[in-house]
Amino acid sequence: MKISVVTISFNQARYLKQALDSVLQQDHPDFEYIVVDPGSTDGSRDLILSYQDRIEHILFEPDDGPADGLNKGFSVANGEIFCFVNSDDYLLPGALSKAAQYFTTHPGVDVLSGNAWVIDDTGACINRFHSRRFSLWMCAYGAATLAQQSTFFRAGPFQKLGGFNTKNRVAWDGELWIDLALAGARFARTPDYLSAFRVYSGSITGSGRLREAYERYTGDMFQKVMGRSPAPRDRYLRIGAKALEYLTQPIIFKDRLRLGPTTPRTNERPGS
Predict the structure, then answer these.
(1) 134, 241 in Cβ contact below 8 A?
(2) d(CA 33, CA 54)
(3) Buried (b) or exposed (e) across 159-179, using 16+ Cβ within 10 A?
(4) DSSP letter string, 22-37
């Protein structure tokens, strides 16, 4: 089972080598790697070119944002399974083999999500993230988040959708999961940790920038899923959805109490 992995890179030379190595050192026998860089000026392109004999496609061309860059990358992909790894994140050893094995033994699954370690700018593990049980209703109320770096999906449903919404500059991955679910895709989870997700002041997640845009995004996704705008009563339903999330997945609640949202450190290391 061939897996296509796409990395979009833009001025992330500090972390890029670790991302590239994490993919190229995977033990799965059948995968291709596609790297997209719309115009880095920090030495990233030279680093990418130093791997050119091991990367199937290198795309050095302008794009209209991350979602468009990913669409360009996946447009040249030939795998049965797709995933994408940001240039400041990385895959854990064996991630591709575990994903391929799951899809092989579960042919009815279209989207598979694992868990992820949360790391800081130094690579220290500060938390862990468990992909939630996905449903459209829970997603509408903010209680069905998936670890993007640990999520794999079949090429067919993605291509039928036409890829990512290029107008989405906030959470193009989250909208993709919703669009796939609305199209009938079947979701599953694995308890395996498949990636490391970096949170730091320069990242969108770590910096807190685009907060207003994210609030608009959540409203738009609610409309897409529920077919209506949010009403005052929905704030209580959101609380109920979060409670249900914690009751049905107690490890998430325990981690929230023990580790906090994302920033407190743990003594664990990715891959342990």
Answers:
(1) no
(2) 8
(3) eeeebbbbebebbbbbbbbbb
(4) HHHT---SSEEEEEE-
pLDDT tens, residue by residue, 230-268? 999 999 999 999 999 999 999 888 888 877 665 443 444
Confidence (pTM): 0.92
Residue type, 205: T
Pairing, β 111-119 against β 187-198 = parallel
Listed as ranges, residues in the chain with pLDDT below 70 are 202-209, 260-272
Cα separation, 127 vs 131, in Å, equals 13
| 200 CB-near residues (< 8 Å, 6+ apart) | 88, 120, 121, 206
Q: Is the dihedral of CA 148, 153, 157, 160 positive or negative?
A: positive
Angle formed by the axes of helices 66-75 and 172-182, to 10°?
A: 60
Task: Tell me how long the chain is.
Answer: 272
What separation in angstroms does the CA of 190 have from each of 131, 170, 177?
9, 26, 16
Burial of residue 245 (CB within 10 Å: 0-12, 13-18, 19+) is buried
Distance CA 261, CA 270 (A): 18
